[in-house]
């Protein structure tokens, strides 16, 4: 059985796939790529059984008939965190605290940063929109540096290409050369729900639905939390 996902959930989905096999479900070969690339490939009819993407992308695929809309199920809620280079090779520790007390703290950090890294996925889009809403797009200019598709912001931080980075918490935890300051404050939170769906091209939609149900079940909750995600409401 084949699946495709965006990069943000790749480590979690790998562990969930192993757990599903232990529970007697079919093995799933999951390819994780940039979210835009994954959506494009599914839209083009690539033969996969399961698709795991941000809910907005899955809705577009469902509307186009590329995934079965009735099977769409939320799997995780992902929060955007703020990070800086650590100057060491130690893996980044998880932090659930707020990076700043309020949005004003985020704006001050943006103004103070020389190079600001953000992702190509939905979290990056949301950050850019927020900066524009704050009227800071022109002020920050080319200090905003978008990571290449499939390249985590953590790598840009560790390599010294940026000195402030915004990325899904799950993409920062455990990465070397990064210090996580915390998640975004409540008045500037960027949360993304990642969902799964059975692809219209699936050769075994019933078994694919069983795997998806396991991924979204209470049995998967400990793994979800361990990877820095939350359970969707």
TrEMBL record:
Q: Which domain of life is it from?
A: Bacteria
Q: Which InterPro entries match?
A: ModA/WtpA
Stored Pfam families: SBP_bac_11 (PF13531)
Q: Which GO terms describe its biological process?
A: molybdate ion transport
Q: Which GO terms describe its molecular function?
A: molybdate ion binding
Q: Where is the signal peptide?
A: none
Can you say what this protein is called? Molybdate transport system substrate-binding protein
| Species this chain originates from | Microbacterium ginsengiterrae
């Amino acid at each position: 059985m084949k699946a495709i996902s965006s990069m943000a959930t790749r480590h979690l989905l790998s562990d969930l796939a192993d757990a599903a096999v232990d529970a007697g479900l079919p093995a799933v070969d999951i390819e994780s790529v940039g979210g835009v690339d994954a959506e494009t490939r599914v839209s083009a009819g690539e033969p996969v059984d399961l698709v795991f993407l941000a809910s907005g992308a899955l809705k577009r695929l469902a509307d186009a008939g590329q995934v079965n809309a009735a099977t769409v199920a939320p799997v995780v809620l992902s929060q955007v965190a703020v990070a800086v280079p650590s100057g060491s090779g130690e893996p980044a520790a998880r932090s659930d605290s707020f990076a700043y007390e309020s949005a004003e703290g985020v704006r001050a950090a943006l103004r103070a940063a020389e190079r600001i890294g953000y992702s190509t996925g939905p979290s990056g889009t949301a950050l850019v929109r927020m900066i524009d809403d704050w009227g800071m797009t022109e002020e920050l200019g080319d200090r905003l540096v978008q990571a290449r598709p499939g390249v985590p912001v953590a790598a840009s931080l560790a390599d010294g290409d940026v000195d402030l980075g915004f990325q899904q918490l799950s993409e920062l935890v455990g990465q070397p050369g990064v210090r996580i300051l915390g998640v975004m404050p409540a008045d500037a939170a960027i949360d993304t729900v990642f969902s799964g769906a059975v692809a219209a091209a699936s050769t075994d939609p019933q078994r694919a639905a069983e795997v998806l149900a396991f991924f979204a079940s209470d049995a998967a909750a400990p793994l979800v939390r361990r990877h820095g995600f939350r359970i969707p409401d």
